[in-house]
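Budget justification note: compute hours in this period were largely spent on complex prediction jobs such as the one shown. Inputs:
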Amino acid sequence: MNAVLSSTLPPHAALLALRERAPLVQCVTNAVVTNFTANVLLALGAAPAMSDLPGEAGVFAGVADGSLVNLGTPTPVQADGAREVVAATRRWVLDPVAVGALPVRTALAHELLESRPAIIRGNASEVLSLAGAGAGGRGVDSVDGPDAARAAAIHLALATGSVVAVSGEIDLVTDGREIVRVPGGDVLLTKVTGGGCSLGATMAAFLGVTDALSAAVAASLVHAIAAERAAARATGPGSFATAFLDELAALEPRDLELAESRLVRTAADVTAEVAAEVTL
Amino acid sequence: MNAVLSSTLPPHAALLALRERAPLVQCVTNAVVTNFTANVLLALGAAPAMSDLPGEAGVFAGVADGSLVNLGTPTPVQADGAREVVAATRRWVLDPVAVGALPVRTALAHELLESRPAIIRGNASEVLSLAGAGAGGRGVDSVDGPDAARAAAIHLALATGSVVAVSGEIDLVTDGREIVRVPGGDVLLTKVTGGGCSLGATMAAFLGVTDALSAAVAASLVHAIAAERAAARATGPGSFATAFLDELAALEPRDLELAESRLVRTAADVTAEVAAEVTL
Amino acid sequence: MNAVLSSTLPPHAALLALRERAPLVQCVTNAVVTNFTANVLLALGAAPAMSDLPGEAGVFAGVADGSLVNLGTPTPVQADGAREVVAATRRWVLDPVAVGALPVRTALAHELLESRPAIIRGNASEVLSLAGAGAGGRGVDSVDGPDAARAAAIHLALATGSVVAVSGEIDLVTDGREIVRVPGGDVLLTKVTGGGCSLGATMAAFLGVTDALSAAVAASLVHAIAAERAAARATGPGSFATAFLDELAALEPRDLELAESRLVRTAADVTAEVAAEVTL
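Corresponding output:
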């Protein structure tokens, strides 16, 4: 899951490849957002498989092009399903929802992290908590902005070999060497449950066609643009959610190509001192 | 959870307080409506936490401003989550979905009732059944109107110390001493799953800013007005559900202030004879 | 559950009867589509009960007018709930989601099949797999068209006594003697999760008012017409799902009557050689 592969693709090429391949995406995700997540994947052009059942989740993950493990509602059965997924594939995304103060999911997140996800996606509070540098947010809310988690994200990436994607007003994606900032989106995305969770699923879909850094960046840009377009014709969070699915389906590679100029790429600048603060 | 507290607030002041506080609402609720319930809370301006997992549900409830226990799909794991919630807080709402004929949830409802919810919310059949005065409805439907459950609601309130809210064409809310009737809403709310269940969550959100009677009344009025406005621009139950979320988000305290004149407050009039009919 | 009963009804008469009866429909279905399925049933005019809990699922099924067992996410608890349902009623629909390659649900499907569903509803890959004539699809996708499963459907119907409904561009419904083809619908129905799953629930609703063949045909026609009308005013999969619920609610018996001319009825033509290929 090295981010500097020959399969590096800019977002518009990744979307083109996704539409051609229609990747199968196996999701172990929380009970609140299964429906919305499946609809996001379908709208995007991927094929969702939403099994969290031991005995099946691993089978799906083994044939899937990408997988998601989201810890929003980690029942014991689902935890076993998640364990199967991470044993069956390396092309998986970890979404450590509300990790930190809550004991069950926090222990599970650290256990699953041993299996090295291709991508870790969370808000700033979750990334800070996972890197051992913060106490976690208030439930599913982030109390910190993405750049507050910049150092933690870089070091988490270096320590795990995973790409780390921090969601917020400006999304921050890093493999520990490079940082890509993805501005855009709309605040209405935070007023619909599953906005962040479905972004993890979209990243898993892009893992079926490109490397982890490209996948995380492409997914973030796709969600940002679809959210902006949806917000422009929505009258509130209900109509926004509906329009967001419409816009995901309507999004064309050329729309992404025009928006790629907004991506800001910089080198990750880390000192050994800061690195030492991170404990997994 | 006395209804006559200094924190008594009229609906418009309660909504203003809710928007300022953005209360964290911990929900143990049924699998059918988790998504809609979370979206209702987000639209309203609250922060949903939807964990029903033992080991986490109680932790969330301990820090939440209000909690909901809805018995629509009471799995053994979820029942343990519910038990944690009611042990961790007194600011919780019980929604005894389809209680009566169904053995698992009926036993669980009576067990949880021992922990004295701040608010009990149900339709007439559920309240009659919980008060021992009826056989329950046909599944999740109510076969009785709210006023048919008036005496049962009063006595259930007196026996438990809970505020009892009976949903129907005219919602009826009582603490056993006072009755507040909340007219309005729209029949389309009964054509969308989660209409009643999300009302319980909204009551839990208002428990974070005011007393139980004020919370139940404010929530009922908020849902009634949002439903009326949504119905005015909907072309069926699908577009109604979408518009309902939009209208919840758009609702302003002054909208509620104008509608408060429709509330009808009367004294609860109970005779000892009727009281004797109620067995918990 | 013989398809040639005196209660045979054309779709428009079945819809009229459904609206009058408001059948209670007990659903054991997958976690991804519970909300959408309940909303489809409510929009149609039926009353959903969505309990998959052992101790309650069988109670509901015993009083329900029709039941659904959908194997999309078959947890151990839900499997026990499903067993209760099929023991409590003969008016049930089996939806063997993604049966074939996945061991848990495949074993469960064959076990439940012993209890003889009134209707088996699936896509071509699922029907082929259930009839022992195919390896199953890629997850929930069908890799075959309905007519590819024609022989398998006929023989599955003859072997089980069930009506078999194969969903696809042209739905194919058979009791082993007669084949009814239902053209129509819209491709957007495949871009929303629960499109097929909710069709199984609608068939269960129609089982409350007519025989199995009529129920499967009426449900297929209702979904086809509602999908066409929804697609005509949708701008993508999100607005399509919303409009689909609106159109289900708005659908009148006379709309179906006008569309009944598109149904194509033929005799099932089977040779003993083909029949011998089917093993259950």
